[in-house]
Amino acid sequence: MSNKKTIFIMFLILVLGFFAFGKTTKANELRFQLGFGGFISTSNLLGLIENAKMIDAIQKQQDQKLIGLTDSQNKDFSNISRAMQTSMIVANIIGGMEYGLKMRILWHILISDIDFALLPFDGSYNGRLDMLLNFNAGIRAPFFLMPFVMIGFTSVFSFYAPEDYTNPDSWKDRAWGAYKNFIFRPGLNITAGFGLKFKGFSVEGYYKFTIKDFEEFRGFYNQLVDTLQRSPADAVGGILAYQSRFGVSLVWYLF
Question: In this structure, is residue 107 part of a structural domain?
Answer without folding.
Answer: yes
